[in-house]
Design brief:
This protein is α/β, with parallel strands linked by helices. The protein is 33% helix and 20% strand. The protein has a 6-stranded mixed β-sheet. Strands 9-8-7-10-11-12 form a 6-stranded parallel β-sheet, with helices on both faces. The protein folds into 2 domains: 125 residues, 3-Layer(aba) Sandwich (Rossmann fold), CATH 3.40.50; 130 residues, Rossmann fold, CATH 3.40.50. It binds 2'-monophosphoadenosine-5'-diphosphate.
């Protein structure tokens, strides 16, 4: 039986096993997908399990998307450019790291039919998924990317990867066409983002990487101001879709039932 695992810390909230095991069953594969809470010093032995074929694929979530890189033999261009890995497998006897968060975000944006061409994208946060969102936004033709994070030190690391992004102080709201919440603010229903959206105008997209709860305070602000808004559910489903396709060489089905698996 083939073995797959998602690693992170914390990990109990992860719905990746629900999605992957559903697709595994649907396709009659002899495989199982589990979740594992790890610490930094467990990464080396986990990757050596991949090398030895004891584990066939790994998904990586917070806080290891960057930390896992030194243990890998090779990276895709996307993983190199974002310095982030969320999907690992053995390729030509080498432990290979790829980043499907980029495709996940692109698919999700395509699905809601919002054109990023020549748009200003304003990103809140500097966590593990931000480099992927920046890279995907650039690929989709955005003209300017502005990032704001409460802790300046953390956002400087992202500036080192993408020199052409603009940084602004936490609390300020510049002119933008797309605003993306990539902070963890909103995971708790009572979380509020203290930003002033009263003068932002119309035809904007409010995008929240969070999908549970499905409508955060941030998305509600987008809704109340008459703008388009979307949560991170499709991005999550599509990053899993791309990982599944890489591992099993099968395009899994995405339908209402798949998406309902994430309503927990
Ligand atoms: P992830 O990789 O999932 O984004 P993370 O690395 O813990 O997780 O990042 C969480 C993000 O939410 C960070 O950008 C964090 O800001 P700091 O770098 O200043 O910690 C942001 N965040 C969390 N709580 C916040 C709060 N109360 N106000 C503003 N930003 C917050």
């Amino acid at each position: 039986m083939k073995k797959y695992v998602v690693i992170g810390n914390p990990i109990s909230h992860s719905l990746s096993p629900e999605l992957h095991n559903y697709w595994i069953k649907q396709n009659g594969l002899n495989a199982i997908y589990d979740k594992k809470k790890l610490n930094d010093n467990d990464l080396k032995s986990l990757i050596s399990d991949v090398k030895q074929g004891n584990i066939n694929g790994v998904n990586v979530t917070v806080p290891f998307k960057n930390a896992v890189i030194p243990y890998l033999d090779d990276l895709s261009d996307e993983a190199k450019k974002t310095q982030a890995v969320n999907t690992i497998f053995l390729k030509d006897k080498k432990v290979f790291g790829h980043n499907t968060d980029i495709e996940g975000f692109e698919y999700a944006i395509k699905k809601i039919d919002f054109d990023f061409k020549n748009k200003t994208v304003f990103i809140l946060g500097a966590g593990g998924v931000v480099p992927s969102i920046i890279y995907a936004s650039m690929k989709m033709g955005s003209s300017e990317i502005i990032v704001s994070n409460r802790t300046k030190e953390k956002v400087k690391k992202i500036k080192n990867i993408f020199d052409n992004i603009k940084l602004i102080d936490w609390g300020k709201v510049p002119n933008f066409d797309v605003i993306i919440n990539a902070t963890s603010l909103g995971l708790n229903q009572e979380d509020k983002i203290n930003l002033d959206f009263t003068n932002i105008g119309k035809n904007k997209l409010f995008y929240d990487v969070i999908y549970n709860p499905s409508e955060t305070y941030f998305l509600n602000a987008g809704k109340k101001s008459g703008n388009k808004y979307e949560n991170g559910k499709l991005m999550f489903v599509y990053q899993a879709f791309s990982a599944f396709k890489l591992w099993h060489n099968i395009e899994p089905i995405i339908n209402n039932e798949t998406i309902r698996l994430l309503d927990q």
